[in-house]
Every structure is written in structure tokens, then in C-alpha cells.
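SEVERITY: medium
COMPONENT: batch folding queue
REPORTER: lab tech (J.R.)

DESCRIPTION
The queue accepted two submissions in a row. Attaching both inputs and their returned C-alpha cells so the on-call engineer can compare them side by side.

ATTACHMENT 1
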Amino acid sequence: MKRFLNKFTFLLVGFVLIAQGCTKDFTDINTDPTSAGADNFDPNSLLTSAQLRYTGSTDFAYETWRTNLIYFSVMMQHLANVNGYWVGDKSRNNAGYEASYFERAYDEQVKYVIDLVRFTEDKPEYKNLHNAAHIMRALIFHRLTDIYGDVPYSEAGLGFYELIYTPKYDTQESIYDDMLSELEAAANGFDPNADQLTGDLIFNGDFAKWKKFANSLMLRLAMRLTKADEAKAKAWAEKAAAGGVMTSNDDNALILHDASSDRLTPCRTSIVMNLSYESPNMRLSQTFVDWMKSKGDPRLFVYGKNPDGTTNPATTIGMPNGYDQANKPISGAPGYPANGLDGYIAPNLPIVGKMDGPTFLLTYAEVELLLAEAAQRTWAVGGTAAEHYNKGVKAALTYLSQYDAAGAIAEVDADAYVAANPYNAANGLQQIAEQYWAATFLNEYEAFANWRRTGYPQLTPTTFPSDITGGKIPRRLRYPTSEYSNNEAHIMEAVARQGADDNLTPVWWDQ
């Protein structure tokens, strides 16, 4: 993996140098057989770019910082932070932060993946790369539409190709229909005898894993629809399971980062979590810590680390959400540590905050827990809800070694945890969703989406001065204000369809 990241760095530097070159000797430059042109350009570099930038902006983790962490991680009460600009659990207004994912995704993800789709279109020599491009396209837009609702989709990224600079906003329902169909076609389109993927940071060109990934992503999209269209959700979930989904932690979709550059290749969440003005104020949430303690969860001291080095759950305290330095007596109050922030358990940065650690895109644990829910609903996905639940929970513990060897949880301990927290059909959906929440720690985009869909865990909203949601946890982020001036007609159509552009108006599949 790391050698591909290094290769990407060199390619990017090369593109920058080319872009900055002057026009002297223009003819010679443009006939140089060693320069990149339509005839000798390797589009695998676009796959590398789309994959790496999906993990976060190269602009100092711009949207990862604001959307995944400042908003979603504290909204989902995995983390707590007393820096006042961590507004997610304080329901305060920051239009720039809310717009960050929209702005960066279209500039830094959609652009590359649409270029890749177009460059490989109707070219048999890039058959497999074209299928990978469509899977990446679904992955990218899946997150975008989950955050905002209706978004530019069918016309997005086509400024160069079709001179469309103000793309229409497609309905979320139509976006989901198209993504599911494209995943089905791509999953069944890989040909081991055709072109090889040489710029693949996720699976290193393993087509069997790409097919499992496509079907597993299909399953995740299908389960998003359980409230909006259960019949459609059932049909696509069963199709995904029949097509073949992930079967072990070896199939996990992840990008292993490289710490050789300060912004381009390190893990984006780790960049933020290690900042000198973030880590001292960042702690595990009281909600999450109390949940893990109640279940005897061995992940407590993988995800977290007590400042004094102790590992006694009984004396480990998570920090409550919804406060900042000025509005919380974080030391000396009853039930809170006398030594303030140093008394709360913090993220275990040597394990989950490594600069050269992984970004997980989709895991086997998630897949098994989604299958457990599908089985609980009596859908034909093979196996029982209990079987899938047990596999999913065990995988969620044992995959942590992929962060770092120090995060490994022994199989015997994982089995003991599963036995101590058995599946119970009477409250099975809640159990499954809570384990999914625990398994998506730091993939807060996914934690937020699944919480909206299932309603679990049952999070208690916080209260804070100047709260703009009336003490309710948001259901979506608002569109960038720039869209109202740059793409007014289309965004107004989208807002009219959805009802409002505010934090409490749910997206289509959340209604």
C-alpha cells in the first residue's frame, strides 16, 4: 500500500510541475513521447487520486476535520471536545463547517472519479478500471447524498465534457436507484484476463475483493432504504448477499497511509487528532465509555487511553458532551474528576491516531451486522440473525489489529465478549445497531447515517447556549451558501422538494 502512496506523491508533484511550465518550445513539449498525453496517459493515477482524496482533503484534512470530527464524532457521542468550535454536539451555527464536505468532495473527489469514468468509457483495454471507477463513484456520492440529501449527481463533474457548470440536483431516491444498478453491473463486470489495476490503494488489484466490496456496498445502500422503501431494501439486500459479500477481516476496504509527507499521504483523522491544540481537549465521550463499560468491552483500552496509564474500567471516566471551557465545571463537580481534563480517558493515539494508520471505508464487521439486521427482518440473506450478529461482533473486535499490532484483541477474548453479550431477538435491532455504532468509531459519517436510519443508540441530546435546533440532534447538514448565488435555480428546486434547508429536515431515506 505505502509504495502506491509514494507513487501518488511523485505523480502529483509531476502534474504540478507540468501545470506550472511555460509555453516556450510548445511544439517540442507536446510531441515529447515521455510526456503525459491522451495517447500515453495512465488513468490508473486517477484511481489513486480518487481513493486517497476520499479519505480526506489534502488541504490539511479540511472536511475530515470539520465534518467527520467537529460535527459527527461529537454528535454521535463517540468523542467529546471542550474547544468551542467543536459545534456538532452544541448545535451551533457554522455555515462554513457544514459546507466543507460538499465543497471539498466535488473539487477533490468527484472531479477525479468522473475523469476516470469518462477516460475509460468504451475502451476495452480499461474494462476493469472502468468497473472500479463506477464503484468508487457510488462510494463517493453515497456519502455526499447521505450528508445533504438531494445533490448534483447525473450532471456533476461535467463542466469540461459537456459545459455544465450549474448542475441540477438529483433526488436522493434517483441517486440511490442509479448507484445500486451501477454497483450490480460493476460487481459482475470484472474480468481477470483483462486489464490489471496498477493504482489501486485499497485492494492492490484483487478483483475478487473488488467484487465483494461492490456487493457489500450494495448491501449497505440497500439497508439505508428500510424506512423509505422496505420492499426495495429487501430486494437489493438479498441480491447483494447472493452476489457474494465480504467473508473475513481480510476483505476489509481500507487505505493504509504513509507518514512521509505532512499533508498529502498521512491518515486524515490522525492529522487532526494529533494537533497540539486538539489532542489536549479531546476525550472519549461519557456515553460511549459508559456503554463499553456496561458490556465489559475490551475495545475500551484500544480506542482509549487514560492519561495516568491505568486500565481499570471502574475508575475510567468518559467526558460528557455538549460543553466547552466556559460552560462546564469540568473539574471539582460531583461525579467528575478533580484533575479536570486529565481525569478523562482520551483517544489512544498510538493505536487509532497513527499518521501511517488506516482509513477504513467498509469492514466485514459492518457487513455481518447488516446481514444480521436483514435476517432479523426475515429476509433471505443466508444464515440466522444470531449467526451474523456473532460473526459481526467478533470481527469488530478482532479487526482492530489492522490499526496496529498493539490493538489486537485475542480471539478467546472476542469469543468471551460475544458470549457475555448474546443476541436476543426481542431487542435484536437495537443490539445490532448499537454494535454497528461501536464498530464505526472514527468513521463518523457512517455512524451518523446508521443512527438516523435505526434510531439506535438512543442518544440523549445536549443543551447549550445559542443552540439552533431546540435541543435536538441534527438530521443533516445544510448546503453551502455559495450554491444560492452560483446555482440558485437548481438548489431552490432541491430545497422545495425536501421542504427546507435546515438541520432538522430529514433526507429522503430518513423520513
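ATTACHMENT 2
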Amino acid sequence: MKNESEFYRREEATRVRVLSEALPYIQQFAGRSIVIKYGGAAMKDSNLKDKVIRDVVFLACVGLRPVVVHGGGPEINSWLTKLGIEPQFKNGLRVTDAATMDVVEMVLVGRVNKEIVALINQAGGAAVGLCGTDGNLIKARPQSKNEDVGFVGEVASVDIKLLESLMDSGYIPVVSSVAADETGQAYNINADTVAGEIAAALGAEKLMLLTDTVGILRDYQDPATLIPKLDIQEARSLITEGVVAGGMIPKVNCCVRSLAQGVRAAHIIDGRVPHALLLETFTDEGIGSMIVASEFYAT
């Protein structure tokens, strides 16, 4: 009994220590917007999903203003296959003809989005599901690359009035990466890009990309080479040098673009780590890579 009692005392001491360490960050970020791109393993693993949802609700409860942006590639592929449509990709982009676009809308807006909203509500939060067409939140345009990929789009503009109204009323907006152009044509847009542009439009404190990697590595085969903090210039240099390569390039570019438009910090973190959002936001060491604009580098 004595050993068990000592164990619980140590556990309680650890909780108190963690809360004490978190307090300055809670005070610093209270009232500020944080945009979370939710994807990867954190969406597929039920245990991780529960922890991410609880993290989002916690952020809202301690005074931050979270916005969740999500994709849903694996579920889109699953439904395309069920409907007899073969998923196709070209240079990393989903080939999105009219039939595929219908499935993308059905899955992202009608299924994935509402599942996330329901989970947040069940965890004690108050979430509202949106896509880019709601309140003219996002205006889309065809992607500018000369690629024959159908209805793949880019963000032309973001109108944050609806988001601000919801957050002012205590709601957590959950945004799917589907938007329409001026004619009403729907487009499938990369969720990282949507998250970055929304963060920039809000002047967010943080943009946080949940990924299936530990962050930016100097040696992609060695997690011990994680770069915990860098600025825009360093991030661009790592791309030029080939240290940042492959699928990490668009993520880093997304972060750089958001920082150039006024976002305070951008984070690439491992969504496979339980409570990754809280570890990165409220602890001194964090767990991923934080990119900052040069003028904020010392803070």
C-alpha cells in the first residue's frame, strides 16, 4: 500500500508540474486563434482521434480560439472504390473529374466533417461544420499548374467574417477543404493549403499541421536530427539544399507562405504522438518543428 500511495503522489506531482509549466503559455495565447490541420494517422486511429479531439476542446476551454481544417484522402479512396471509380493521381494531385468531385464533396462535407463535429460535441465542445462555400468563406480558382487533373483548386480568397462570428460565440469551426469559384463550380483543394490561407486571413497565433512525421529532419532517416526551431530563411535554404524534399516541401512552403502573411508561428508535428497539440503548445520543449518569421525568431 505504501508503494502504491507513493506512486499516486508522484503521478499527482507530475500533473501539477505540467499544469504549472502550461500556465504561462495559456496566459500568453488566451484569446488568440490557432488553426489546426487535422489529418494522417491522427484521423485513422481511434485512440489518437480521441486524444486530438480532447486536445482541441481543451484549447477552447482555456481561452484559445481553435479552427480545425481537415482533408480525408483515405476515406475518399475507399468510397471511390465502393462506387467503382478508380482513384487516380498525377504528380501528387488527385485527378478529380465530375464524378470524383461528387464523391469528394459527399465524403469531406457530408461524412468526415460531421463526424469530427459530433466527436467535438461529445467531448464537451461546441463545434460547427463548414465547407468553403458556407458564408463565402473560401473562393476557389482552378489550380495554376499546367496539369490535367480536373476540378483541383487553389484558394483565391478567404472571408473570415463567419469564422470570427462563430468563435466570438464560443463555437469551434470545423472546415472541410472544398470550395467553389465565382460560377459555383466546386473544387477539391489541398487541406494544408486551406489551413495556411485561413490562418493567414485570421492573423493566427499558430498554424499547426498534424502529420505522420516527427517534423523537419536534417537526415530524413534519423528522427534524432529533428530541427525544433527555424526561421523562414532557414526553411527556404533547407528546400534549396534538398534537406527538405518530397511531400515535406509543400508543407514547409505552406508554413512559409502563412508566416509571410502574418501568422506568428507554424508547426509541423507528429500526430501519431498522443496529445501532440498540447505538448507542442504548452510545454517548453515541444515535440515538432516550429517555423517562425525572422523578426520573431528570438521570442
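NOTES FROM REPORTER
The two ends are 47 Å apart (CA to CA).
No errors were logged for either attachment.
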